[in-house]
Amino acid sequence: MNISDVLRKVKQDVNEESEGKQLPSVVDNSIGGEFFFTKESTSAQPVPVNTVKPTPAQPVKKEVAVQQKSTVPVKKEPVVEKDAAEGLDYGYGLSYAATTTVGSQQWISKNLNVSTFANSEPIAEARTPDEWKAASDQHRPAWCHYNNDPSGLYGKLYNWYAVHDPRGLAPKGWHIPTDEEWASMINSLGGETVAGSALKSTDGWASKGNGSNNSGMASLPGGFRYSIGKFSDVGKSGYWWSDTEFNAGGAWCRNLFNYNDRVFRGHDYKGCGFSVRCIKD
Q1: Which helix (H) or strand (E) holds 15?
Q2: Residue 209 needs a FRET pair 20 to 30 A away by CA distance; which of 66, 122, 173, 180 works?
Q3: Do the Cβ atoms of 201 and 210 come closer than 8 Å?
Q4: Mean of pLDDT values over 67-94
């Protein structure tokens, strides 16, 4: 990662953990070329896993690499438009309910956008920071649009309590992918180091961070929402929940960033607002 990005993410982390009481100043007076933190050589000792709970703005517990374009050819499977007779609607209407096959799995081709559970009971919308934080603190399901703008392209953001609710967030016949199902899909695209390009959409990512979309997933940089209610990083990153718990306070997720083609595996606070994809039962 570029050192300026590291400092910015640490600043966000401190501000969140101090609940806004501390806001470090980041001043960049550097001149010349860019400086990056890169993966250690293979002869070096492994870096210990950080056991501190992460914030979504600082994807830890994984190696970080300088931008690397995929050299693995990935065959793009056709995107299959589901017709109205099959009744698939994940929040955009039947005419937009497209799916794609990646490896042996079938996935929806957009982020989930529903506001009700599978049993038709409503999921609470949390618009203000106080509403969002209260849902997180009380372990209640909640959703929102990024910056509360319903015209966005990114679908809804959900906390993990909505993802894991027994009423079911996914449409009938589908479910939220487990950590293992995410890993299987990424491996079929060449592995974590290069699969990001195949997952990313061909436009919409800042700083020329677009992908090839060879998977048909068309993943967009929808950003995220902190557990305390602030939004961040739209255009630069995308975060997607798994249905697999890490511990009492966190769950596993996958992250994509505009600065390279890597897929990051991490765990974050259950109260954060991330995008959601569904996989067929």
Answers
A1: helix 3-17
A2: 180
A3: yes
A4: 57
Average pLDDT for residues 44-63, to the nearest whole number?
44
Q: How many residues does the chain have?
A: 281
For residue 99, list its beta bridge partners.
80, 108
Region at 216 (left for phi over 0; alpha for psi -120 to 50; beta for the rest) = left
Q: How confident is the model at residue 86 (pLDDT cuts 50, 70, 90)?
A: low
- To the nearest 10°, the Cα dihedral for 253, 8, 147, 53? 30
Nearest to 276 by CA among 149, 161, 176: 176
Nearest partner of 97 among 116, 85, 105, 125, judged by Cα: 85
Whole-number percent of the chain with pLDDT over 90: 66
Measured between alpha carbons, how far is residue 236 from residues 37, 112, 176 in Å? Answer: 18, 19, 24
* Greatest extent of the chain over all pairs of C-alpha atoms, in Å: 60
Query: CA 115, 117, 118 angle in degrees (round to 5)?
Result: 130
More confident residue, 78 or 173: 173
- DSSP assignment of 127-185, as one string? -SHHHHHHHHHTT---EE-GGG-TT-SS--EE-HHHHT-TT-SSPTTEEPPPHHHHHHH
Q: What values do phi and psi take at 34, rounded to 5?
A: -90, 150
pTM of the model: 0.72
Tokens of 203: 């436009």
Q: Which range among 5-14, 81-90, 264-273 shows the weakest confidence by mean pLDDT? A: 81-90
Least confident of 92-96, 145-149, 182-186, 232-236: 92-96
Lookup result for tokens 């081709």 = 109
Higher pLDDT pick, 71 / 221: 221
Distances (CA, A) of 143 to 94, 126, 167, 171: 21, 6, 15, 16
